Fold:
Amino acid sequence: MICPTCDHDNLPGTEHCVKCLSDLTALDRPIAVDRIDRSLMEDPVGILRPRDPIALAPTATLREAIAAMLERDVGAVLVVDDAGGLLGILSERDLLTKVAGIVADFADRPVAEFMTPAPEVVQPQDCLAFALHKMDTGGYRHLPVVREGKPVGVVSVRDLLRHMTRLCGAKG
Structure:
């Protein structure tokens, strides 16, 4: 990174120029160059209008969870405690990797046995880039949206793709 004060070529990520000690941190911040960058950096998760969560008790059966997912055409359900606090998430991936072809007579078993406990979450005011980063690094396709520890929605990779597609098609 070239110091704008003395033109010294510093290593990338250096916070201060090694020659003149000028602050270089502002030079290392991403800059939005188009409407997609701007949206990722500035728009909150709430702009995606997260779907209402399907919340089940940990004692609900896999049969009930699968029926709810099929009925509402969603890829994940949230598992909550009696007070509505998030305990876990049960996704299509959980069903494929922990149940299908592995567990016999699974239909009446509780979702708590197969859910992913303490899932990564986002809040409605978190920026889209934060949510996308969590999805990318964790390999998640669904993220619970929580407010004060209670789920208020779920966002999916599909929601982000639809948002980006709308931005690509927008004029201006």
